[in-house]
Amino acid sequence: MFVLGNFIQALAYVLNTLITLYYYILIIRVLLSWVNPDPYNPIVQMLYKAADPYLNLFRRFIPPLGRVDISAIIGILALVFVQQFLIQSLYQIAAMFQ
Asked: What is the value of pTM for the model shown?
């Protein structure tokens, strides 16, 4: 059963890395919204395409407060919550099989 434990632990590590990478993509997306970059830049387009679908989930329920869009803050907090909950749970499940 240790193989299953190792698999779950490796899965938790990969998911943790992917969530952390997406966290940084969201941070960069927020910083880009402050400087108004060239929208035709391929890197900017890639960041918008990666982050906006996730942020649009929160924009539907949380309207902007004046000129301030707090959907990114809520989205980042939700991502951190899921990361802490999911990764810790997977590590504990992996420990049961070792």
From this structure: 0.86
- What pLDDT digit, counting tens, does each position of 7-56 carry? 999 999 999 999 999 999 999 999 998 888 998 999 999 999 999 999 99
Q: Are residues 87 and 15 in contact, defined by beta-carbon separation less than 8 angstroms? A: yes
Query: Do residues 72 and 56 touch, judged by C-beta distance below 8 A?
Result: no
**Banded pLDDT at 6 (limits 50, 70, 90):** very high
Asked if 10 and 66 count as a contact pair (C-beta separation under 8 A), the reply is no
Indicate the SS3 state at residue 68. strand
Q: Give residue limits of the domains in the chain.
A: 2-96
DSSP alpha helix (H) spans, 36-68: 42-59
Characterise 76 by phi-psi region: left (phi > 0), alpha (psi -120 to 50), beta (else): alpha
Q: Give the separation between CA 13 and CA 33, rounded to whole angstroms.
A: 31
Are 27 and 76 in contact by the 8 Å Cβ rule? The answer is yes
